């Protein structure tokens, strides 16, 4: 069955970096758009980025120029390199498969358990 496992979260100081990993299985990964979104307590789900099967990527304004998404089709993994982390970035971060591949910022069909990111002194 479809499985998405997020890892790499942790606690960093403002301005620091983390790299999240999404390990996928159970579906034709190389043909599938993968997205990242986050959710903080009491807040709505916030889409962040996605990478299409052809390797092209897309970002929302809140993370553009700070986060970089990439994929390794051979390993079945998607990475989210997060730089210049800010106090407003803490949340649980999820990787997901959008229901409609070309519309990658909503309607997430599958996602994992998430990984916690904390930014603080």
Entry keywords:
mainly beta, 121 residues, seven-stranded mixed β-sheet, four-stranded antiparallel β-sheet, 50% strand
Characterization of the model:
- With about 120 residues, the protein is mainly β.
- About 0% of the residues lie in helices and about 50% in strands.
- It is built from no helices and 11 strands.
- The strands form 2 sheets. Strands 2, 4, 5, 6, 9, 10 and 11 form a 7-stranded mixed sheet that branches. It has a 4-stranded antiparallel sheet with strand order 1-3-8-7, with no helix packed on it.
- Strand 4 (about 35-40) and strand 5 (about 45-50) form a beta hairpin.
- The chain starts with a strand and ends with a strand.
- The mean pLDDT is about 95.
CA-atom Rg in angstroms: 13 Å
**N- to C-terminal distance:** 40 Å
Count of DSSP strands: 11
Give the biggest sheet. Answer: 7 strands, mixed
Mean pLDDT across residues:
96
N-to-C order of helices and strands: EEEEEEEEEEE
Q: What percent of residues adopt helix (DSSP H or I)?
A: under 10%
The assigned structural class equals mainly beta
Strand content: over 45%
Low-confidence runs: none
Report the principal-axis shape.
globular
Number of helices: 0
Outline of this structure?
With 121 residues, the protein is mostly beta strands.
Question: How does the SSE layout of this entry go?
Answer:
Elements: E1 3-7, E2 10-12, E3 18-25, E4 34-39, E5 46-51, E6 57-59, E7 67-72, E8 77-82, E9 91-98, E10 108-111, E11 115-119
Parallel strand pairs: 2-11
Antiparallel strand pairs: 1-3, 3-8, 4-5, 4-9, 5-6, 7-8, 9-10, 9-11
């Amino acid at each position: 069955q479809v499985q998405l496992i997020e890892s790499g979260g942790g606690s960093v100081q403002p301005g620091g970096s983390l790299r999240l990993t999404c390990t996928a299985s159970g579906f034709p990964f190389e043909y599938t758009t993968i997205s990242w979104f986050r959710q903080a307590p009491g807040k709505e789900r916030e889409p962040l980025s996605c990478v299409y099967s052809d390797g092209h990527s897309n970002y929302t304004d809140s993370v553009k120029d700070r986060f970089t998404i990439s994929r390794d089709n051979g390993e079945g993994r998607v990475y989210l390199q997060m730089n210049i982390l800010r106090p407003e970035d803490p949340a649980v971060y999820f990787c997901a498969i959008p229901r409609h591949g070309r519309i990658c910022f909503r309607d997430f069909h599958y996602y994992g358990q998430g990984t916690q990111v904390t930014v603080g002194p």
